[in-house]
Structures are given as structure tokens and as C-alpha cells.
Amino acid sequence: MKRHAGLLVLIACAFVLRLATLRTAVEGDAPPHGEADERVFITLVAQVREHPLAYTLQGTALLGRLDRHNYDKPIFSHPPAFVYLCAALSSVGLPLPLIPVLLDLATIVCVYLLALRLHGQREALWTAFLLATCTATWFVSQHIWIDAMVVFSVALVMVAAERAGRKGTPAAYALAGGALALAFLSKITAVLVAPAALALVLQADRTALTLRKVGVSLLAAATPCVAWIALLRIANGEWLPSAFPTAEMMRRYPFVASIVARPWHYYLSNLALFAPVFVLAFLRARARDARDLAPALCAGAFFVAMTAVGLLQGGYQTRYVAPAYPALALLAGAAVAQLPATGVVAAAGLVAYGAVGGFQYAVLWTPRFADLRTSVAEQFIGLFR
């Protein structure tokens, strides 16, 4: 407990701030968690709690206000892990808005443990601190979205992969494969963490990758994934459906049209505007440390793939690359831990800047916005103008 006291204090402070999720709206305000995607998941959780197999929006009042091309299907297009987890936890009395918060806190613990294994105590605390104050993941945790589950499952895959390589046992490899399956069943794009997981395994495993290890991990990973794909094919007639915005959606919802029209560099510029401390992750490239390969692969995979999705008219939203932020925290945390005193002060200033933005979007303004709109810098510029 003494060794991890810093983490416990950090988690306690982060939890108190994130409790703003449970606030009630004052008279005249929009009701809490009224954003469109949140209404979708709240409805699905209610459906599943009523009947475990009712993972659909068909027959609900909400369907009439949504684009039928993407939502009028026998089975909802996204994998079901988040909805069923919420249904199970809320049925025993846990408030639904608190579940993404707990997933966010669990993600912080995961990156702390991974940084502890890869680097050491100082780097682990910096990594956890950077993620606890991260604007993007904090913002995501304040909404009843699927994304908090995705971010957690991606971090869990990396922890499980490092453990599998370190233990070198078939059981550990099976657990790592199961973690990857959980990530896929949270959101299909979560499988982008697979190259990073493989890198962690190869770096940590001092013995040969036997056929048995590979077999049990692939079996644990593939069985649930194939089952879900087959179910979608049977029920919806689709293999892996996408929810790309249609012309009708862009006509009905101006926000959807705006995210499609964003520039190709949106994710990189957004990183610099809202969470500039993570730009320090690029400093690690100078270290040429093999331990940075896995987090670099993870962050790079999400940024590149989601930029490609945006170029294909799928839209750009901060939460699409939220699973990359734990990996960025690992890189930036390792970089900050090696800075001299003046560098640490500068890094702390960047953290404070990002935390102000996080507090605004995650506490003061949640759930008014479906994405980050203006950075702290833009607001200061506006005041001066």
C-alpha cells in the first residue's frame, strides 16, 4: 500500500472531480445526458435490462428521431460489451452515469501498472497523473458512451500482453487473447491495439513463442469475435457494418456535417490545442528505447486509421482517437520523468492548461457538447478581443 500510495491519492482526487457526472440539471437546463448517442446507449441498456436479447432500437420511441439506415436493424451495429456491462451493474444499484467514470479510473490503474513494469515508479506516477488530467479521456468519461469502455479495454490488452510475455504460460496468453476479444466486443476499431500487444509479448517473453501459446491466445481472441460477426450476418445481413454518416444524417444534424468537414490534420491539431503535454511523447523518439515501441504503435495506429476514416467521409471526433491517449500518456510520462527541474515546471504548466479545458468540458459543460469545441487558448484570445 505504501508503494502505491501516490496512485491511491491520485485515483481518489480524480474520482471526486469526475463525480460531476451524477449532477442533476437545474430547472430550465437541458436534461443531463441528453446527447443523441447517449440517448441511444441509455435506451439500449434499458432494453437489455428488460429482456437480455433485446439488443436493438427497433420498437423504441427513440428510433423515429434517428437515421433509420444506421439504426433500424434487428441488432444494434456496435458490439454489445458496454451495454451488457452497464445493464449488469445498473441492475444492482450502480448509477448508470458512474460506470464510464469507473472505467476511466480503471484505465488509469492499467497504464500505471504497465508503466511500472516498463519503466519504474517515477514514470508510472507521471503516466497516471497525465492520464488522470487528460482532457479527452476525462471528457469521454462524463458521457454515457461506448468510448470509455473502448479506452479501458485497449489499456487492458496492453497490460495483459505484457503479463503474458513475462509469465510465458499458456494461461497468461489465453487471458491476453480474451482481453483482445473484450476490446473487439467493445468496439471493432479497438483491434488496432493488436500490433502493440504483439510488440509487448515479443519484448517480454524470454522463451520461444510455442504453437500452444499462439493457439490458445488466438482461440480466446477469435471465438467471441467470430461469434459476434456471424450473429450480425445472420440477423442484419451484414458482416461488419459501419455507421458512416449518410446524406440524410448530415442534412438533419448540422453537427454531423461539421465533423465530416473537418480538416485532415484535426487529430494532431486537436492534440496540440487541448492536451499539449502529450506532444512531449514525441521527445521519446530521441531516446530510441525499445520499451517505447508498443505505445508508439498503439497511438500511431489509432491516429493514422482514424484519420483515414475521416478522409473517407467518416468524420473526425476526439473520442475516435481516445484509445490512443493511454499510450501517449505512457510515452509522455516517461519523457517528463527524465526532464530537469525547469522542464518539469514547464510540463506542469502544460498539464494545468489541459486540466482547465478538461474541467470545462467534463464538469462545467457536460453533457452539452458531443465533442470539444474551443480550447482554453481560443477562449483567452476571445476575451482579449
Explain the layout of strands and helices.
Blueprint: H1 5-18, H2 36-50, H3 68-71, H4 81-90, H5 98-118, H6 121-132, H7 135-141, H8 147-167, H9 170-186, H10 194-204, H11 211-236, H12 247-252, H13 254-260, H14 266-274, H15 293-314, H16 325-337, H17 341-364, H18 376-384
How does this model look, in words?
- By secondary structure, the chain is mostly helical.
- The protein has one domain (5-21, 32-384).
- The protein is 64% helix and 0% strand.
- The chain is built from 18 helices and no strands.
- The protein has helices at residues 5-18, 36-50, 68-71, 81-90, 98-118, 121-132, 135-141, 147-167, 170-186, 194-204, 211-236, 247-252, 254-260, 266-274, 293-314, 325-337, 341-364, 376-384.
- The protein is globular, with a radius of gyration of 21 Å.
- The model has no long low-confidence stretch (mean pLDDT 90).
